[in-house]
Amino acid sequence: MSKPLSRTGSAALAVLVALSGLSVAASGAAAAPTGRPSPGGQSAGDSLFPAAGNTGYDVLHYGIRLRYARSTGRVSATTAVTARATHPLSRFSLDLQGLHVAKVFVDGRAGRFSRHDDKLVVTPARPVSGRFTATVRYGGKPVTHIDPDGTQEGWIPTSDGGATVVAEPLGAMTWFPDNNTPRDKATFDARIDVPSALAVAGNGDLVSRRRHGSRTTWHWSQRHQMATYLAMISMGRYRVYRSTMRSVTGRHLPVWSFVARKYGSLAPARALVPRVVRFEERRFGPYPFTSTGIVVQDLGVGYALETQNRPTFDGPPSVLGLVHELAHQWYGDSVTLRRWTDIWLHEGFASYAEDLWTAAHGGPSTAAAFRARYRAHPASSSLWDQAPARFRDPALLFSSAAYVRGGMTLQVLRERVGTPAFFTILRRWAARHRDGNGTTGQFRRLAEQVSGQDLGALFHDWLYVPARPDGY
Ligand code: ARG
Ligand code: ZN
Q1: What percent of the chain has pLDDT over 90?
Q2: What CATH number did the domain enclosing 423 receive?
Q3: Is the confidence at residue 465, as pLDDT, over 80?
Q4: Last residue in a domain, options 270, 296, 329
Q5: Fewest CB atoms less than 10 Å from the CB: which of 323, 338, 413, 449?
């Protein structure tokens, strides 16, 4: 039941917009940055994706305004990136793949800019320090990003004349200039202007939907910190469903779902959303965001994505697909990895959530599921060729080592520390790093703190060694 890729199928997208904020900088840069201005760096330092991300600033907010022309598939857009410089900057870079840049302003003054590979390098008229806003005017026909494993992501045109963004890990740069690293989370506003026949899904809350002539502008606002890869807009010929659900803690959460017309109403799948959210709240703690829902589109990418608030499915979702993507709202979206080699912190947790659901709905216990998988994968199985927390090949990011072995790691942890301590660890992990980031080391230390045990060998054997751990 657990599958390496969750392919529930559909598409979604959303556009997002502005955003703000970043945690690290806000505290780390308390002292006014001084010294001679120097250029920011052009890598966030991720070992799997060394070209992605930038340094020298932390983004606080992205304000994205995008107009979509259905007949040509082209966009014209303005993204305002509000950031805090971590040192005085003579120059800085953003990630942007494809598209044509017309103008860049920094705090209202025209800046010089150049393009190298997927970088937009900006030289402001005068160096920046402290808080600044870079406004980029750009347009064209967005490209689709191809991952090292050959899958498509980023801007995905759809046959209904719309397009959807699913952007893990790097595709965000196909539709807005950004600091394309999960370490630099921010808030977003997305104002998306489309022909009125199309509806627009996005992250967070719908602030307004304004008709002007034959077009409509949808304004989505994300007030929680969000990684760039989770930013979504999806424009399509949707049936749009709006309702409210009650969370376990009694909060009323708006539910916005977007279902491509060819799939009908998908009433059963939509009815599952509140049930799954509450099921997961009882295990993982309060739902971390302000709204929920799903986006279902015929994307043709072969996977679903946990786009924040509203996961996006490539076709009608399976039950476990819903369980998986909604679990990511806690583990992946609210608590996000700092480096991509920690992907098991997302996929292992979401896979384990599938097992929890199955066990609670008449299927085998999580312990039985673990044993069956352990037996089904002898030492010679390729499942063990990769250490989940130590990938060197970016093409393995979404391999079964992250999903299956990652999920198995959690069952091993549960059996070691006991069920009550295990769920305390899961809940505390979500609470402590809410709207932030976390690493495998931090998770291990938390588990040791809660359980009072030394878990070094367990984490080592399950996450850092490319071999089947013995004795289970
Ligand atoms: N995180 C997604 C999931 O829920 C998978 C994303 C796959 N992305 C890709 N580019 N292949 O499992
Ligand atoms: Zn997943």
Answers
A1: 92
A2: 1.10.390.10
A3: yes
A4: 329
A5: 449
Over residues 410-417, mean pLDDT: 98
Q: Which domain holds residue 136?
A: 34-144+164-231
Question: Do 201 and 319 have their domain in common?
Answer: no
- pLDDT category, 34, cuts 50, 70, 90? low
Residues 39 and 169 in one domain: yes
Which residue among 183, 200, 231 closes a domain? 231
180-211 residue pLDDT tens: 999 999 999 999 999 999 999 999 999 999 99
Question: Model-level pTM greater than 0.85?
Answer: yes
Cα Rg for the chain, rounded, in angstroms?
22
My answer on whether 94 and 121 are in the same domain is: yes
CA of 46 to the centre of ligand 1 (A): 18
- pLDDT score at 35: 82
Pocket of ligand 1 (CB under 6 A): 5-6, 147, 151, 153, 168, 303-306, 324-325, 347, 398
- Atom 5 (ligand 1): residue with closest C-alpha? 305
Residue 55 covered by a domain: yes
How many Å lie between the centroid of ligand 1 and the Cα of residue 343?
Answer: 10
Helices (H), 285-395: 319-327, 344-360, 366-376
Segment 82-108 mean pLDDT: 98
User: Is 384 part of a structural domain of the chain?
Assistant: yes
**Both structure tokens of 271:** 């009815």
DSSP secondary structure letters along 139-184: EE-PPEEE-TTS-EEEEEE-TTS-EEEE-TTTGGGGTS-B--STTS
Atom 4, ligand 1: which residue's CA is nearest? 305
Q: In this structure, which residue's CA is closest to atom 8 in ligand 1?
A: 168
Count other C-beta atoms under 10 Å from residue 41's C-beta: 13
Q: How many A from CA of 349 to the centre of ligand 2?
A: 8
- Does residue 1 lie in a domain region? no
